[in-house]
């Protein structure tokens, strides 16, 4: 299975060179692909940083909207695009938020999105929920400020976790030094 992903990754790199995609376009295509993998937060951070530059922000918005206008066959790509929009609203520039507000009508039209896969599962339900969340968020400045602050606090906590050793408590352990107030416990929980 790993070999298949390596081949696909290699094919994507060749396509990026042949099509002469910009660096930003490569990042957006990478994060909004139709694979089952989760979005890469490092790539999304790179895109969020680029939204602070005027020309790059315009390109990002254009590329995101082109993903939204694609046909509904690639529902996963559409859903990942909506996740990216949410991430950029929470971590990107104010210009990006204003640009997305200009496209709120196009985004809200996706509230009727349907896609039934081969097994009969409605994959469009996640798209509908995300569209509802994004349109509600984009319509309320106070909500955006609150969500951005919460996202930044969570990001700071998670960055702190990556440098903190994770401790596990065994039910039978007599470890007197165990501290249940450890911030790691709040995020990952105690494994018992």
From TrEMBL:
Give start-end of the signal peptide.
Answer: none
What GO molecular function annotations does the UniProt record carry, in alphabetical order?
Answer: clathrin binding; phospholipid binding
Record-level GO cellular component terms: clathrin vesicle coat; endosome; plasma membrane
Top-rank lineage group of the source organism: Eukaryota
Q: Which InterPro entries match?
A: ENTH, ENTH_VHS
What range(s) does the ENTH domain occupy? 16-148
Example of a GO biological process term? endocytosis
What is a single Pfam family found in this protein's UniProt entry? ENTH
Name it: ENTH domain-containing protein
Q: What is the lineage of its organism?
A: Eukaryota, Metazoa, Spiralia, Lophotrochozoa, Mesozoa
């Amino acid at each position: 299975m790993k070999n298949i992903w390596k081949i696909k990754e290699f094919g994507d790199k060749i396509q990026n060179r042949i099509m002469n995609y910009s660096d930003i376009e490569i990042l957006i295509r990478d994060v909004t692909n139709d694979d089952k993998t989760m979005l890469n937060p490092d790539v999304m951070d790179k895109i969020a940083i680029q939204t602070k530059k005027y020309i790059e922000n315009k390109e990002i918005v254009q590329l995101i909207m082109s993903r939204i206008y694609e046909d509904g066959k690639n529902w996963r790509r559409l859903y990942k695009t909506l996740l990216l929009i949410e991430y950029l609203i929470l971590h990107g520039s104010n210009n990006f938020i204003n640009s997305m507000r200009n496209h709120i009508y196009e985004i809200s039209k996706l509230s009727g999105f349907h896609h039934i896969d081969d097994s009969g599962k409605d994959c469009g339900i996640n798209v509908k929920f995300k569209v509802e969340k994004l349109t509600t968020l984009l319509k309320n400045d106070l909500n955006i400020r609150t969500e951005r602050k919460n996202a930044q606090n969570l990001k700071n906590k998670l960055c702190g976790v990556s440098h903190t050793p994770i401790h596990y408590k065994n039910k039978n352990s007599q470890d007197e030094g165990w501290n249940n107030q450890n911030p790691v416990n709040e995020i990952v929980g105690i494994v018992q």
